[in-house]
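Question:
When you can, review this sequence-structure pair and walk me through the tokens.
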Amino acid sequence: MKRLKKAWIAFLSVVLFLSGKLKWVLAVFKFLKFSSLISLFISIGAYAMVYGWKFAVALVYLLYVHEMGHLFAAKRLGIPTSKAIFIPFVGALIALKEKPKSAKDEAYLAYAGPLWGTLGFLPALPLFWMTGDPFWGLVIALGALINLFNLMPLHPLDGGRIAGVISPKLWFVGLMGMTAYFLWKPGPIAPLIILLGAVKCWELLRREFRWKKAQIHKEVNESLLREIQRYMLLSEEEQQEMYWRWEDELERAEAELQRRKTWHIPVFQDEQKLQNYRLERYVEKHHQLLEATRWGALQEQTVPDFIRVLQKEIEENEQAIQKQTVYYRAEAKTKWAWLCLYLALAVVLAVFTAYGQQIMDANQPLIS
């Protein structure tokens, strides 16, 4: 009966976990008027039904301290967040209402969780040494394991966000590690993390492709802006000739685009896809250009509007290019500093995990 109860709760928790990562769960909790405190007590009750109240209180306390680390770091960076929401048999989460400005800020936010989580279970050490109660060994092992698991270098875990400032390529290492962990200890959470991590790895592979697309869009817009500015300096007869030339060029471009239309294999045929994208943007923008400059149109209104739209799009493209280029950029000393901090915390947590597990193994019959 206990196993059946746990299975049902775990199933519902997995659904909530996926929803939380897709940012649906926060809307659900808001709709049901659930506060952070209520979700905390629901989690304690769910864990208590399966493991007993002592374990439930200890686990939720450890999760709470971990999330408070994230909230503290977000406050230091001036990033607004939601309240912490606790999900039985999954953990807890907070949602950032603004994206960090850089991978360095994201790493700072992520690192604070496991760091505070480590500080959260340290009081169990003197309590075990003074009382000899193996329950405190359980708290040590549990706290260390939770935070060590979160340091796996794979999104959406904290380790994946820290790895971003060191090198996003570490996500592929984390993906392989999480897959190996799932094969060793199958469970409902690992597949979801693997799925979300694989999506992030795919985004990394496509980052250069997205940068090139934004660059192409910007180049096409700049080319058209130069054309329309030159057009405005011509006489009416010269404008009409240019308009006809644009019509001919557009007709040829549309025929070429129709000839090239086919499905391309991502990564392997990116260059062909980018060439088609350039042609698509050229056709789209020339349609707008002809509409703005068609013979007899009120050019005093349509042409300046078209120029303003182009200038705005060029600015947006430039911002997109800068964002993709700069977000994961960091100085070498910054990368090394974060690598050292990451490895140091991972080693500390691994040692405490082993120590806590040793206490549990020695006192297994006494732990309740």
Notes: The beta strands are 85-87, 91-93.
